[in-house]
């Protein structure tokens, strides 16, 4: 990519940043976003790497991609414990989750914005052998800086939805030079692989590996995290949990209304709502307050405390009695708002009936593999273009249902309650699909390994600014 083009991009980014500054300032004030990582984002002043070991830099935009990296990181570390693995992310939610999940084993930092000076400085500090971009992150200056530094570049779990493909294909004269700098593109399926090639990627660099989303999916409901959350919320094994996950407006209102309609008829029915964006937690809390429903927040739940006098019979009995009263109190509150991030995957393990949000609006859907892997009777709205291939696979085995509107969602929940055996079979077919599709991590790492070499040209000394 010519230098003049890099600076043309810098000018365009600065203009966009200037135009967006009022909105950014408001978001920082109102929601606490964009308050961190200024020196990393604007200047590339990430934490310098001090070792001379081979290094892989993995970039994940936000929460979804951060979770996606889990199996890739584990496989890389297992095969090459002598390599340095560092993780960058863009959003605060992604950074917070990555810090909790991966620190201190791996360095976590905010990725520089795509200004040429920031990308170059970050590359000098990290000195990676390989830059790995999760799904589709075509940042020209970042890729250019990596190549100038002597690093290889790869896209893993590559996806290109209908909207992205139309845009990239329309401007393929601009996209083609960027794609041709990428050494490996591991696409989720053949259709996506062809889209990358059509937009200008070198044919020999594009390989179909399958979706990494199948890899990290937990299938065991008895896993420690799920059981812990179940106990925390006072859930009994006999409860029927209707979980609406990754929701956006008006999906929470739909789920709440359906619960209120069915609650008296099904006293074991419980509702768990997990909004997609943290900034909407308070909005959903107001909705629940106005509904008159007795509900509780996940953030207010604390583990039952036990007496430290383990050998004192009376103390133990008192503790058990207290815990029993706590559990009974929590069970009376049949609606739970999960106002924390990074837990949805484990909460799905508590669900009997599931609705995947972001599918009645313009978002294009969220990850429906997590409930499918647990064998949840899963449904979602009609707008699922971001996960079209996964939806097609689930539907091909009759492993999920599409509901067109609120009425159809209510009918799905009601039918699942009336015929629990059919609901169970629906979930079992989905779970079996997930189990048969795993293996993408190994295929992906097999492609990445040859790109990491110890013999490389380092353009700046280790303590570069």
Count of individual helical segments: 19
pLDDT averaged over residues: 89
Number of strands: 14
**End-to-end C-alpha gap:** 24 Å
- Measured as a percent range, the helix fraction is 40-55%
Describe this structure as you would to a colleague:
With 465 residues, this protein is of the alpha/beta class. The chain folds into two domains: 195 residues, 3-Deoxy-D-manno-octulosonic-acid transferase, N-terminal domain (Rossmann fold, 3-Layer(aba) Sandwich), CATH 3.40.50; 188 residues, Rossmann fold. Helix content is 47%, strand content 14%. Strands 3-2-1-4-5-6-7 form a seven-stranded parallel sheet, sandwiched between helices. β13, α16 and β14 form a beta-alpha-beta unit. α3 packs parallel to α4, α11 runs parallel beside α17 and α17 crosses α18. The protein is globular, with a radius of gyration of 24 Å. The protein starts with a helix and ends in a 17-residue tail after the last helix. The C terminus is likely disordered.
